[in-house]
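Researcher: Checking consistency across runs. Here is Nitric oxide reductase subunit B again:
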Amino acid sequence: MGNYRKLWFTLIGVLIVTFSLLGYYGAEVYRTAPPIPAKIETAGGEVLYTHDSILDGQTAWQSVGGMQLGSIWGHGAYQAPDWTADWLHRELLNWLDVAAERAHGKPFADIDAAAQAVLRDRMKTEYRTNTYNPETGVAMVSSTRADAIAKTALYYDQLFSDAPALHKTREHFAMKENTLPSAERRAQMMGFFFWTAWAAATERPGTTATYTNNWPHEPLIGNKPTAENMVWSVMSVVVMMAGVGFLVWGWAFLRKHDEADPEPPQHDPLSRVPLTPSQRALGKYLFLIVALFSFQVLLGGFTAHYTVEGQQFYGIDVSQWFPYSLVRTWHIQSALFWIASGFLAAGLFLAPLINGGKDPAYQKLGVDILFWALVVVVVGSFAGNYLAIAQIMPPEWNFWLGHQGYEYVDLGRLWQIGKFTGVAFWLVLMLRGILPAFRQPGDKNLLALLSASVIAIGLFYGAGFFYGERTHLSVMEYWRWWVVHLWVEGFFEVFATTALAFIFSTLGLVSVRMATTASLASASLFMLGGVPGTFHHLYFAGTTTPVMAVGAAFSALEVVPLVVLGHEAWEHWRLQHRAPWMARLRWPLMCFVAVAFWNMLGAGVFGFMINPPISLYYVQGLNTTPVHAHAALFGVYGFLALGFTLLVLRYIRPQLVFSDRLMATGFWWLNAGLVLMIATSLLPIGLFQFHASVSEGLWYARGEAFMQQPFIQTLRWVRTFGDVVFIVGALAVAWQVVSGVWGSRAPAVPAGATLAETRR
């Protein structure tokens, strides 16, 4: 540890404390998850649903795309309704009508105000009262509620079939005709929807809040923010301000001890190290990255268009072959594949450099095997998604080969295992280059941190195996966010920071001491807020108040390190002027500058906009979420992966000179397209929905009546301009990479010369 002992102990201490919190309250998630009753039955003994039928309904929901078609408990897609909020509201309205017919012989709307008030009060009491008996496993419902459930289920049965009466509604929700052809499976899925609404309306024993902390906002039964929600929302703001204050205070003092930048070398150090066979083999990775990137971007425009035409693409009915739920699945999965591949390629490029400029034995063979394994997983998972959503795949195969139904981990379990195996194999390839370097003299602290992040990336994706096809939804959400939040937003962030520090120190642009100090300090800051901050995704997923408290307090700290990103952007910008040869790295550096900007705006501003419990209570599942998702996922990790791709391309094709025209078009149009997409469409729609959610409820903010208003549709059409600008930028970058990979091969080494001499 040497001179970095305090920093290492700080990082280790942070990891021990934060993972202890994540584990302890993770066990709390298991202990307090909303029960799935053995039976839902009436006083007369009629069984409506059973534990197994509810879980069968969960698997049926997964097979139609799950979270890619509407959302459950606020998590998922945004075009169709949130099924929890929508079912609950429809069931409540049906209960009022059934009760009014029984008591007064006419619909609820036709009785006087006093009688309406009486029925509303009865309904609120009935729905919020917990009738679940843990000893028998039975939850009782009244005959009135049973009739309301039946009427609600009939609507959904027609919606997910091809009933002509609801054709226009399916079009508005971007659902294909006959979404779920089997009547039996539709009935089971209705049971799952009912159970999620039951948990959202039923008070947890010993409290006055429902199992989902009174989410969603539903005035008819008094679902409103809890007192704890208000308290921890205020506390999250206080914690964030305190964290920012202490960071600025520490930054002011620590910067006094910054050492001067080292004198940069006269020639690019990496260009004087001969390329290894495994590095030469990375060209096909770069081609795969931009191919998937282009595919993802085009699918993004296709998916966005479904929000205005529902089942058509400029008048052509394509929903029966490529429905919204499928193209949205592919859009998200291709993003994860190409971004992860960019990180893998950067690591594989670094491994021989760390190993003294030479490949370990059979490294090129390993690089080739990993590439084709990635291709198999991509093609196999995409084909499985198609067969599942088309309802061609047998139901019992769906989870393993088709569609898991959970956003960001949509691929079938077999393909998920393949992806994990590939990442673990990458870890082996990396360690074969890294471990021998520890036997060499010199400061190895930065290398140790890089190694730790590589190991974490290689292993933590495995958290996705801790849930199965029939796992309780609350438990599944806990582990899913280990993958989506902790693996991606946590360890990839540390790897990226450390890898960049390693590259810049190797280039002689920053000192090893400064690179190591900055990386260790950044890792501690990222992990401090990032690890327990995972819980901010679980406020309303059937968890208790302590989970909300920990999530709110620590997720606020995620904003803290982003405060200094302006300085980081400036640091990256100025590197291109430190030596004449750095001009050839201008565009990778510009991507890293963009990362710092979007990290501040997308992860910081837009992230905190939805993080406090009181905010998320109203905006979870609205278009404010994709504002954060687009700005953070592409703005941060997308630009980072593109920066790595261009950096690797620059060195494996040493004769290449980036086209300033192509790269300027690509870089600025990507940024402009992202700004237009957010500022002219996603954010305004999200803010209008926010108002609707506060004033009426989530059911209305996501409902057909609100979302089909002309001004909302106009905002959706306006997004086309941003999408087109973004697509042009993406294709320009893709063409630069493709032409660089295939049109600028590394020269052969003349006899008696080193490759370094040919690269000068």
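Researcher: Does this match what you'd expect to see?
Model: One thing to look at in this run: Confidence is low (pLDDT under 50) at residues 746-760.
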